[in-house]
Automatic annotation (TrEMBL):
A GO cellular component entry from the record: photoreceptor connecting cilium
Top-level taxon in the UniProt lineage: Eukaryota
GO biological processes: non-motile cilium assembly; retinal rod cell development
Residue ranges of domain RPGRIP1 C-terminal in the record: 1-163
Organism per entry: Nestor notabilis
Pfam families in the record: RPGR1_C (PF18111)
Protein name, per record: Protein fantom
PANTHER family: PROTEIN FANTOM (PTHR14240:SF4), RETINITIS PIGMENTOSA GTPASE REGULATOR-INTERACTING PROTEIN (PTHR14240)
InterPro entries recorded: C2_domain_sf, RPGRIP1_C, RPGRIP1_fam
GO MF entries: thromboxane A2 receptor binding
């Protein structure tokens, strides 16, 4: 059936301030398509140190078939019909998960990474095990790390785009 497959493979930081920040202990990654869909890795993992990476090996499928997921499909169509910079990307958020013994602390966004679905269609290729930049949540011009992801969406994006041209 028609689907988008997203895999969150691993995360590593390039900025030493993340490694030295004692308030950041455990991390999980959320993936979101607009306000429309959010998934997160089921586990938060210990923060990587010394240039290492943590491995989530988390995979998720978003179904966008006409029969059962019409609204998602219409959203993808609107992305092509109304080009707006913020609606065509999957957003990955790296989130600090406070330790269990620190109930007063809240989850905190550490950084953001993006994959443009429009760019996948334009370049006619999926993102396969590719490192994407993670930007600091407090300074979106600063790259703090790399998130290795796979986004297989080309097949369904072609299909939706062809529907737009037919309408």
């Amino acid at each position: 059936s028609e689907k988008i497959r997203i895999e969150i493979i691993s995360l590593g930081f390039t900025e030493p301030q993340i490694a030295s920040d004692e308030t950041i202990q455990q991390l999980f990654v959320e993936c979101r398509l607009s306000n429309f869909l959010a998934e997160e890795t089921p586990l938060s993992l210990r923060k990587p140190t010394g240039g290492r990476r943590i491995h989530y090996n988390y995979s998720n499928v978003i179904y966008v078939d006409k029969a059962n997921n019409w609204a998602r499909r219409e959203y993808l169509k609107s992305m092509f019909l109304k080009p707006d910079l913020h609606t065509d990307s999957l957003q990955f958020t790296v989130v600090s998960d406070p330790p269990d013994d620190e109930e007063d602390l809240e989850c905190e966004d550490i950084g953001f990474a993006y994959v443009s679905l429009r760019k996948i269609l334009q370049e006619q290729r999926d993102i396969i095990e590719q490192d994407i930049d993670v930007f600091d949540s407090k300074d979106d011009s600063a790259v703090i790390g790399k998130l290795k992801v796979t986004v297989e969406a080309l097949h369904v994006l072609r299909s939706v785009y062809e529907e737009c041209e037919e309408d």
